[in-house]
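Figure caption, in words: inputs first, then the predicted bound structure.
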Amino acid sequence: VTASQLSPGPASGQPAPASAQKVFLDCDPGIDDAFAIVFACGHPGLDLCGVTTVAGNVSLARTTANALAVLEFAGRPEVPVAAGSVRPLLRPPVEARQVHGESGLGGARLPDAQGRPTDEHAIDLLIDTVGASPGEIALVATGPLTNIALAVRRHPRLVSQVADFVIMGGSASRGNVTPAAEFNIASDPEAAAIVFGAGWRVTMVGLDVTRQARATGAVQERMRGLGRLGRDLLLPGLGGYYGGEAAPAHVSPGDEAAPAHLRPGAGEGAPGVAGGADGSPPVHDVCALALVAEPGLFGCLPARVEVETAGRLTSGMTVTDFRAPGEACNALVATSIDVPGFWDLVLATYARVPAAQDPGR
Ligand code: RIB
Ligand code: CA
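Bound structure (calcium ion present):
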């Protein structure tokens, strides 16, 4: 289903068409994770069948509460949510509250969820759901890979039971928390090493493409036409990146956190819009779901990806070898994105969510 084929009208509350791709999402909401959840709820070609949460951007308690609140806000309270790992396998917990705010949703203030997570642990919900529908469910992970690593260790056959496995994480170029490492991988390199070595093909949607998916001023102007969805989640979420302030100067240039004059595309977008004219915030995690929904928007290349776990300066680096022989390749790495096509798809998908049809107060 492409953007032009998306029919207007609310998506949620209607059963997904039989042809829809089942998706199971492991995430750490997080502003862009929340945007990814809404995308999965709105796209007619996706059928979100389960959500698990992991500590990452903020604590496990907050990522779980956020997942529940976003699903209810998007009109999908029936999607089961199970909480998972409270910290990385070995390393101390890291959080990104300076990026996503204390709540994890930036400036967005959603109604507290009425529902609760299931009593099952995330790993059991993931294994049971995929195991009940072998070959049918695309597993997507947009946070640290702790839950996924524990799941493949507990149930190795998971790698052959998924229809596909797509992550937002890593980078074949430079990182965003260090010059070498991207946040999801850097948070739990040991988990990532287990996941990339588990025997499945990992589709890695990394910073190489996601840092191009920036919500510029022009994009944010289009979000203003999306009723409560734009007013209560998308715009305040984006506005809350780094508390809406300029990011600290210590981070590497070219990232959402880089000093304004060092960011790529300086001068794009409307000044004074969240993220500023030059550092518009990227919606990293939405790219992973967009690739499942419309793979033609991305260019991908096979590669051998291994995760550095011991490097003093490079821990968490996804060392990507595009020259590896076919039989050694364990990953499909996204290397290009049709940015206008991506935003057309995302905004058309968001327009199908009931909250986008509701002007609210
Ligand atoms: O590096 C970007 C990733 O880290 C995204 O998944 C974001 O939500 C954070 O978890
Ligand atoms: Ca995330």
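Strands lie at 21-27, 46-53, 81-83, 137-141, 164-168, 202-205, 298-307, 318-321, 331-337.
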